[in-house]
């Protein structure tokens, strides 16, 4: 039964903005991850529906057919992230200058169009190498487009979110990506069980276009510009947010290279960059390679529909845990039980250490008798990774309220180098996808990354707003800055 208080929350425009952001990131991950499970049927010569994609002679046909297919799949999975890391800083900067509405919305729409065009490559009569490179190019462009999305959201957060609600807002809105994985894997599994794998791409693209229509009509970059918000809520947001609108006009004139270089020179940002990389490595081991692990190692994962549900379970847990951890963190901070910085460190430690232990444990629980325990350990331990939202990611927003988009672009861009490394590392470590010892080695590497990031954040994270957040660059051109300041670290703030 809905309480009056809950009904009132539904009417808040900032809650509706959080929902639109959540749904936008859900479609973002749909378009990002659909190929990971579609590849299972695309390259299956016995698939009932849809065209069979034959990559057995990839690379000239001189190698083993099985390895050729594996190499082609790893190459294509990596393509998205080669593009993704290139537009991170640009996306954050563009959102600070021109607003999240245009940057996030337009890029997602074009990405959806490309996603819907993906199956056409399977129907064109071309050589194996030509098709692999064509699919690589398409995924690379999708990566360029999606690279702007997450950095573009930090300016949205600082403009729409009261300081006391940031933990809950980020834990909910930014979890849309994780929930997108929850939806995509089971949905795509069912689609491929009853129809062609081509509908994996058609359906995810169509859902994204529907979201784009809602985003266009109902989201506004500032509460001040929103015709549907109440005066009471507008005044509350403006009086309690960390965003300084007086600086916005000045930021339009800020050159991107000097700003980016000052961000890179900031040790507090290095800490978040390290966390982003290590967190990304663990996430992509499960997002990109999870369906392959479940299909080849766990007896229950042989069925494509089961594979979809099992691959999604950890991400559902991550979505739920993020809401709980974010709400608890905001409550404890508001009551002055735990300082904000200490809470961020606790959440980050939980988000890394528990999943690290879970990945190691689950690699010893893959027999027919223990496979359900394996899924349970994976799901519950990985759920704690939701604490990253109210941990180091929230810390990044606090380091630079007005220039958080560019700062997050630097951090997230570095972090997503792991996105194209994981398929390559997996190909190198997992020589035989049916041998658990090989998979265990990959999980140990991911666990080591998590543990390292937890230590770095606990020891070196900063709670202070950094100098680059309000620095005035009007008196220095990009060329001047490169000449005089490029190798000078005198502006470092510890």
């Amino acid at each position: 039964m809905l309480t009056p208080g809950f009904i009132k929350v539904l009417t808040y425009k900032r809650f509706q903005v959080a929902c639109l952001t959540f749904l936008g990131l859900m479609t973002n991950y749909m378009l990002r991850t659909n190929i990971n499970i579609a590849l299972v049927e695309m390259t299956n010569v016995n698939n009932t529906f849809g065209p069979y994609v034959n990559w057995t002679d990839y690379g000239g046909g001189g190698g083993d057919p099985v390895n050729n297919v594996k190499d082609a799949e790893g190459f294509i999975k990596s393509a998205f992230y080669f593009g993704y890391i290139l537009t991170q800083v640009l996306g954050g900067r563009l959102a600070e200058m021109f607003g999240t509405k245009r940057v996030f919305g337009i890029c997602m729409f074009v990405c959806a169009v490309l996603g819907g065009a993906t199956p056409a490559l399977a129907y064109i009569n071309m050589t194996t190498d030509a098709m692999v490179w064509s699919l690589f190019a398409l995924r690379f462009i999708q990566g360029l487009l999606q690279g702007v999305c997450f950095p573009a959201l930090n300016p949205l957060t600082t403009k729409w979110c009261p300081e006391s609600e940031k933990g809950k807002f980020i834990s909910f809105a930014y979890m849309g990506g994780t929930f997108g994985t929850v939806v995509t894997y089971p949905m795509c599994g069912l689609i491929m069980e009853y129809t062609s794998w081509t509908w994996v791409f058609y359906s995810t693209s169509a859902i994204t276009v529907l979201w784009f229509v809602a985003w266009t009509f109902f989201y506004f970059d500032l509460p001040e510009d929103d015709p549907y918000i109440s005066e009471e809520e507008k005044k509350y947001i403006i009086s309690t947010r960390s965003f300084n609108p007086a600086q916005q006009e000045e930021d339009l004139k800020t050159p991107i290279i000097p700003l980016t270089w000052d961000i890179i020179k900031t040790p507090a940002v290095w800490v978040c960059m390290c966390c982003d990389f290590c967190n990304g490595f663990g996430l992509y081991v499960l997002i990109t390679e999870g369906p392959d692990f479940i299909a080849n190692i766990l007896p229950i994962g042989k069925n494509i529909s089961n594979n979809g549900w099992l691959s999604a379970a950890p991400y559902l847990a991550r979505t739920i845990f993020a809401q709980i951890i974010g709400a608890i963190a905001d409550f404890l901070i508001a009551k002055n039980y735990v300082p904000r910085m200490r809470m961020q460190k606790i959440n980050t430690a939980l988000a890394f250490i528990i999943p690290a232990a879970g990945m190691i444990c689950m690699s010893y629980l893959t027999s027919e008798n223990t496979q359900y325990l394996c899924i349970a350990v994976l799901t519950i331990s990985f759920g704690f990774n939701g604490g990253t939202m109210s941990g180091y990611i929230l810390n990044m927003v606090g380091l630079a309220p007005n220039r958080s988009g560019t700062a997050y672009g630097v951090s997230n861009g570095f972090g997503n180098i792991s996105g194209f490394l994981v398929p390559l590392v997996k190909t190198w470590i997992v020589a035989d996808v049916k041998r658990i010892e090989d998979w265990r080695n990959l999980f140990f590497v991911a666990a080591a990354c998590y543990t390292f990031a937890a230590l770095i954040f606990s020891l070196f994270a900063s709670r202070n707003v950094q100098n680059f957040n309000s620095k005035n660059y009007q008196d220095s051109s990009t060329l001047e800055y490169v000449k005089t300041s490029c190798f000078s670290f005198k502006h470092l703030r510890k």
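The chain has one domain: 16-485. The chain has a mean pLDDT of 84.
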